[in-house]
Amino acid sequence: MLxxxxxxxxxxxxxxxxxVAAIALLGPIAVMLIGSAFSAVASFVVGPSRHAPGCFxxxxxxxxxxxxxxxxPHNEDVIAVAASRDKAVGALQDAVHACRPDRCGRSGREGxxxxxxxxxxxxxxxxxxxxxxxxxxxxxxxxxIYFSARDIELVNELREGFAAGLLDISRLHGxxxxxxxxxxxxxxxxxxCRAQ
Length: 196
Hints:
The structure is a single chain. Helices cover 63% and strands 0% of the residues. It is an all-alpha fold and 196 residues long. The chain has 2 domains: 2-43; 53-189, no CATH class.
């Protein structure tokens, strides 16, 4: 059959507009389905991706420019960042205590994910907001308050929780880059994307 195909070419019905239209419409769908199947198998066999970008912005913001407002630790927005951090740390501590790899049910996992994503998002937003308002001083303050011994311990616990399958980081949308950086890179490389 292959020799006949090579010798005489494709049959006439192959060149009709219906066949060409069907191939044009169904071809991309077939390629997409095959690609999705390969991706699903690879994800199942290899596990979730541990890729992290070189820098992050929250909610798809463009590379950031530093702000020029004078930094004052008594400003309301600076105080609000510290309060938000304390709240996120408290919620995450409770979730980590309640949900361990050997004893964590479905509702416990949901609470764990909510607290973990809340903490990591608050950390990313604090860095971004203080940088675009106050520049380097604001960013330095955000990094300092989120670099306590307890924060380092919590991030290590989050990494262990992710490795144990407690933390699903799919469907994070605009927060994904910051979350991946905290989970898969050294904390010293948690950096904002800056405009050149």
